[in-house]
Amino acid sequence: MTPALRGEKLSRTFSTATGDVHACVDIDIEVAPGELVVVRGASGAGKTTLLNMLGGLERPTSGRVWVGDVEATSLDEEALAALRRERLGFVFQSFGLIPILSAAENVELPLRIVKTPPAERDRRVAEALRLVGLAGHAAQRPGELSGGQQQRVGIARAIAAQPHVLIADEPTGQLDSRTAATVMDLIGELVHLQGLAAIVSTHDPLLVQRADRVIELHDGRVTSVGGAAPSRSTDGHGDRDGDLDGEVGSDGDGVAEGATDAAPRTRAEARAQRESEA
Ligand SMILES: Nc1ncnc2c1ncn2[C@@H]1O[C@H](COP(=O)(O)OP(=O)(O)OP(=O)(O)O)[C@@H](O)[C@H]1O
Ligand SMILES: [Mg+2]
Questions:
Q1: Is 21 close to ligand 1, i.e. is its CB under 6 Å away?
Q2: Of the chain's two ends, which shows fewer C-beta atoms within 10 Å, N or C?
Q3: Residue nearest to atom 10 of ligand 1 (CA)
Q4: How far is the CA of 52 from the centre of ligand 2 (A)?
Q5: pTM of this prediction?
């Protein structure tokens, strides 16, 4: 089975006035479809550098990146940009929304760029907003939404183009811990229900619980790779149809405590889907 995203011996060295900074050193990493990988590490550990290399936003000093079966590191800038548009969705710490556009228009923008036909665009925008629990907020501008809602618009924008991989660099860094947890749960649900691969960086130990796998970075090196934390849960929102309407992450109180068996079931489903495609 081909991983959705793979980095092989990725290194990035920055030359500075005070000498070389080894931001990432020989990092091997894989993310499978339907898997949520969290990259954890202190400030300066190399998380952003790693995610930027994996997302084709920054060239590694050495090493290779594959997105599915395409070697991203062998592409020229134009082909790399096309690969990013077609296969990758990005979520940013600062949301990255355009203030004068409504939530729906923000989600629509990348689809306009790739010239998705209008009817299909409308359908995908509505579906993406529904998936993040913001169907009723389509007309509001970012300034009229809470931080958590803005980040959900950011996630809707990232998934509207139906990427294979979601790359999120501290997507909850500007949110309070409760809202951060709901946003992370939403990402987990999208990954497990839709078979998306996701790699998410965070400082927050609580958010690490949502991961299928945790990669710990220290001074640019992987110091440990852990499996799923036993307490991980998607809080029982899992719905076999991937129907995430209603309260998914809505306004911070939609995420109930108490896991049901939905999470393992959906993970098993995701795995089954992966294997049937292998
Ligand atoms: N463009 C650059 N030029 C020089 N050094 C850089 C550059 N970008 C990053 N670095 C250095 O590389 C190291 C890793 O930085 P990076 O931004 O990847 O860390 P991070 O784990 O994302 O940190 P944070 O949690 O603060 O976002 C740091 O020492 C940083 O100073
Ligand atoms: Mg960073």
A1: yes
A2: C
A3: 23
A4: 10
A5: 0.82
Closest ligand (CA of 17): 1
Question: Using CA positions, which residue lies closest to atom 29 of ligand 1?
Answer: 44
Q: Which domains occur in the chain, in start order?
A: 5-277 (3.40.50.300)
Ligand at minimal distance from the CA of 42 is 1
User: Going residue by residue through the chain (278 aa), what tens digit of pLDDT does each one get?
Assistant: 789 999 999 999 999 999 999 999 999 999 999 999 999 999 999 999 999 999 999 999 999 999 999 999 999 999 999 999 999 999 998 999 999 999 999 999 999 988 999 999 999 999 999 999 999 999 999 999 999 999 999 999 999 989 999 999 999 998 898 899 999 999 999 999 889 999 999 988 778 888 999 999 999 999 988 875 444 444 433 333 333 333 343 443 333 333 333 333 344 344 444 444 44
Report which protein residue has its CA nearest ligand 1's atom 3. Answer: 14
What is the DSSP secondary-structure string of the chain? Answer: ---SEEEEEEEEEEEETTEEEEEEEEEEEEE-TT-EEEEE--TTSSHHHHHHHHTTSS--SEEEEEETTEEGGGS-HHHHHHHHHHHEEEE-TT----TTS-HHHHHHHHHHHTT--HHHHHHHHHHHHHHTT-GGGTT--GGGS-HHHHHHHHHHHHHHT--SEEEEESTTTTS-HHHHHHHHHHHHHHHHHH--EEEEEES-HHHHTT-SEEEEEETTEEEEEE---TT---TT---TT----TTTTGGGT---SS--THHHHHHHHHHHHHHHH-
